[in-house]
Amino acid sequence: MRMVNYCLAHFAQFIGALCILSSVGCSVDKVVSARLYDLESGAISQGRFHFTGSTHGRIEVHLSSGELLEGEYNTIPSGTTGWGAIYGRVWTAAVSPNALTGVAIATSPAGTVLECEYITNASRFHPMGHGAARDNRRRVYRLVFGGE
Fold it and tell me: What is the DSSP letter of 25?
């Protein structure tokens, strides 16, 4: 009987630990830093992806001019149409079969619109990738993010 009680007590502890671990593992709130390199001037702008472990979230970009842009990103888990027009301007358009593609758009009150295309890994805990961006003022950027 002692052995049964011992096993039940340890089994209950094991189940409790599983419940705690599963609740912790389901939520990933992380700010992923990004850099945008202006391919004409060489200026570096800073950005942030607000990553929660899903394929959609908020972004903000602080241009080197001081202008703040806010918007959203969407990572596409499998296949996409119309992707690559911006990315192909600064990177070779071949994409690894393990990479995920995505798009982002951000705007400012001053009227600047920034469109991005990127590829990223599938990591929920260490997202990183690269891409390209262009704005409505004809500036083109190389985008690098994550890796922290």
Answer: H
